[in-house]
Amino acid sequence: MKKNKYKIILILIMYSFLQGCGTVKDAFSSPKKNSTDEFLVEKKSPLVMPPNFDELPLPKSDQVEEDQKIENSGSLEALINNSSRSQDSTIQESGSSNQSIENSIIDKIKSN
Amino acid sequence: MILNFFNKNFYIYLFFVFLIFISDRFSKIYVINESVKNFDNFILKSAYLNIRLIWNDGIAFGLFSFDNKILYNLLSLLILIIILAIIYMIIKGNGFRRFSLTLILGGALGNFYDRVFYKAVPDFIDFHVNNFHWFIFNVADIFISTGVIFMIMIEIIESKNEKK
Questions:
Q1: How deeply is A93 buried, as exposed, middle or buried, from its count of CB atoms within 10 A (0-12, 13-18, 19+)?
Q2: Rounded to 10 degrees, what is the CA torsion of B98, B101, B102, B108?
Q3: Average pLDDT in the A38-67 region?
Q4: Helix pair angle (B95-117, B139-163), 10° resolution
Q5: The pTM is what?
């Protein structure tokens, strides 16, 4: 009787070595193993102001200064002249751009 | 006794071992190819049975899963010794005991082949009821388990006969 018990235990030990069944945990945890190592990712350095940042000119600072001068002078004529001058310049710019577009279209039609 | 075994039933038992080994190999190759083709380990999903490929580099139930190569080779050597012991028991044994040992040998050789060539055993049969999953196993494990159940039954019957 005892001999048979030992034999059964021996068979079960042998069984555990010969079997190749895996746990369910392996099936669900395997993709995690392939994930990247978080310690290999380098940290970004903090933002730093460039050297001589204060010496750089502000954008459109000349235009602002000119407007301020006119406003300070207080004369109505100067203000009207300034506005008409700026309108003329915008019309001229738009006109020239329209002409250039027209010319390019005409050139393309001719080439075809 | 040894000469007697080789004369009588040697080819029948050899055919049994070969049949188990081939059926196990065929199933493993099919599942591995399917998972490679689909870029997914999940081959089949159903209410009670999933076919999902996992690799077990340890022994039963995922135990003794080593990253160390020396320990893995030692484990493989131990399994080889057990296989040789089974072959010896088949030659020495008789009748139904020999048949159940043949089932164990066929399955053991199937798993040992993977252990040598892939360095891990592919498992893919996953029985489950809702969220309760049984251990994932393969065709070789089915034959080993059947053989072991038969062996335990033989031992229990023999012990009862001795009592009488």
A1: exposed
A2: -170
A3: 73
A4: 150
A5: 0.64
- CA B57 from chain centre, in angstroms, equals 14
B111 contacts A4? CB cut-off 8 A: no
- Determine the 3-state secondary structure of A37 from DSSP: coil
Active-site residue numbers of B? 123, 141
Instruction: Specify the number of domains making up chain B.
Output: 1
Question: Mind listing the pLDDT tens digit for each residue in B7-25?
Answer: 667 788 889 999 999 999 9
Inform me whether the C-beta atom of residue A4 falls under 8 Å from chain B C-beta atoms. Answer: yes
Does the pLDDT at position A21 exceed 70? no
Q: Tokens representing A51?
A: 């050297």
Give the C-alpha separation, B110 to A22, whole Å: 15
Cβ distance of A24 and B140 shorter than 8 Å:
no
User: Does the structure's ipTM exceed the value 0.85?
Assistant: no
- Give the domain extent around B18: 2-163
| Per-residue CA distances from A15 to A1, A2, A34, A81 (Å) | 21, 20, 31, 103
Cβ–Cβ of A20/B54 closer than 8 Å? no
Interface of B with A in 3-32 (CB under 8 A): none
Give burial (CB, 10 Å; 0-12/13-18/19+) of A54.
Answer: exposed
Q: To 5 degrees, how large is the angle CA B33–CA B39–CA B43?
A: 65
Say which residue, A17 or B2, is predicted with more confidence. Answer: A17
Residue B102: the pLDDT is 93
Integer Cα distance of A107 and A74 in angstroms = 50
Chain-centre distance of CA B94, in angstroms? Answer: 21
* Phi, psi for residue A81 in degrees, rounded to 5: -60, -45
